[in-house]
Automatic annotation (TrEMBL):
Region annotation (Disordered) ranges: 1-36
Pfam families reported in the protein's UniProt record: DUF659
Name of the featured protein: DUF659 domain-containing protein
Organism: Trifolium subterraneum
Domain DUF659: 201-303
Biased composition (Polar residues): 27-36
Bias kind Low complexity: ranges: 1-26
């Protein structure tokens, strides 16, 4: 049960049965949340409302009732957060029943959830495209969440899902691509923003300018590891293998106490892979890494290696 102080100092109950969720277990959440909100690590404030109509996913649109003011609303987690945290100009009235104590508690939960999400994302260098770049509040999609709007929204979701599925089927993409965090974040970002007349990257852009830009991002991410080679040293690791096209490949990696880095793979097709050929490849990699940084060279047990 919620407990809310009235103006004359007496205490009045605010509905909602209690729940005990370990991921957001705090004195207030254990005492003042409703189990029907289905709290989760990324959207913890769902626990402070009672969902009256099923929602799609953890942040989808739903019809819900605030456990503080007992008013009914419609919308996504964005509106739940704005209502409970008393954020003005968010398309929903703020909750007048949330006291400063509850506000601090819920703000802490929201900040902790944001930190958890940020901690599992790959950090891109400053000035480059992040996994979930900040969304301009003025560009966020706006609209009503009434029954008619929700019906059209569900139809649009089904159509978009069908288009995405058709992409997988027609291109023969592995279904595991759907679990790729960048695949998910791309559509999430597009759904949360209003990018007028946006056209996806073209064939040439993906294989030229955008590829070079992403390579630069990766090189910047790896630079802190390379910087430790001068002090701690690095080992060159090489072995030979055959890919699905039956091409003989020789790959090279640099490994140190700060982690391994893939350097390159050489296609040995048409080459006579004797000790001289392998030695020249190893020497070129040593020059690339820096001879002064190399502690040892490790090879597999192939005769020429």
């Amino acid at each position: 049960m919620f407990s809310q102080q009235s103006s004359n100092g007496s205490s009045s109950g605010i509905g909602g049965s209690s729940t005990n969720n370990s991921s957001t277990s705090t004195p207030l959440t254990e005492k003042f949340t409703s189990g029907t909100g289905s709290v989760d690590d990324h959207n913890p404030l769902w626990a402070y409302v009672t969902v009256l109509q099923s929602r799609i996913g953890t942040a989808g649109n739903a019809k819900w009732r605030c456990n503080f003011c007992r008013e009914d609303f419609g919308g996504s987690y964005y509106r739940v957060r704005a209502h409970l945290l008393r954020q003005k100009n968010k398309g929903i009235v703020i909750c007048a029943q949330v006291t400063s104590e509850y506000l601090v508690e819920m703000s802490d939960l929201e900040q902790n959830a944001t930190k958890k999400v940020d901690s599992i994302q790959v950090p891109f260098p400053t000035g480059t495209t992040n996994l979930n770049p900040p969304i301009d509040k003025n560009k966020r999609r706006r609209g009503t969440d009434g029954p008619l709007s929700m019906a059209f929204s569900n139809e649009a979701r089904d159509h978009l899902s069908a288009q995405i599925a058709r992409l997988f089927y027609s291109a023969g993409l592995p279904f595991n691509v759907a679990r790729n965090p960048y695949f998910i974040s791309a559509f999430t970002y597009a759904a949360d923003t209003n990018i007028s007349a946006y056209i996806p990257p073209s064939y040439n852009a993906l294989r030229t300018t955008m590829l070079q830009r992403e390579k630069s991002n990766i090189m910047k991410l790896l630079q802190p590891i390379k910087d430790t080679w001068v002090e701690k040293g690095v080992s060159i690791v090489t072995d030979g293998w055959t890919d699905v096209q039956r091409r003989p490949l020789i790959n090279f990696m640099a490994t140190s106490s700060t982690g391994p880095i893939f350097l390159k793979a050489i296609d040995g097709t048409g080459e006579f892979k004797d000790r001289h050929f392998i030695a020249n490849l190893i020497l070129s990699v040593i020059d690339e890494v820096g001879a002064q940084n190399v502690v040892q060279v490790i090879t597999d047990n192939a005769p020429v290696l």
